Amino acid sequence: MKLTTQTDYALRTLMYLATRSTRANVADVATLYGISINHVAKVVNLLARGGYIRSTRGIGGGIELAQHPSEIRLGEVIEKIEGDLHLLSCVGEDRSCAIDAFCKLKGVLAEAERVQRAYLDTITLADVAPSRRQLDRVD
């Protein structure tokens, strides 16, 4: 599986917010990682719709986690941002090719997907978030 840049930015945004005890802003995240404010704003919108962060507009506004980092499972976030995670389209469909009825590869790939997702669901944001001190040292 190869994740999209959007998922990469979403995970990095969550990691950043996990180190903060107060609200941050999109520009802070974009500056730290050297990425476009527009890209961060797009993933913030997706993360807010997914219930992972709260976004408050106006003076004193900003972004913050909506859940404790230990409650945010990476597998769930990745699936929510990525959508279809199938290694091949046939894994998620029935009768998608001529050999579907007896194809052993489809079962192997389905099991690989299941194992990968099960593993990612054991990992929380708290497990992968850096410390505030580590992020503060990044130039």
TrEMBL record:
The keyword DNA-binding applies. It comes from the Bacteria. The gene is nsrR. This is HTH-type transcriptional repressor NsrR. GO terms for cellular component: cytosol. GO terms for molecular function: DNA binding; DNA-binding transcription factor activity. It holds the Pfam family Rrf2. InterPro entries: TR_Rrf2-type_CS, Tscrpt_reg_Rrf2, WH-like_DNA-bd_sf, WH_DNA-bd_sf. Keywords: DNA-binding. SUPFAM superfamilies: Winged helix' DNA-binding domain. PANTHER family: HTH-TYPE TRANSCRIPTIONAL REPRESSOR NSRR, WINGED HELIX-TURN-HELIX TRANSCRIPTIONAL REGULATOR, RRF2 FAMILY.
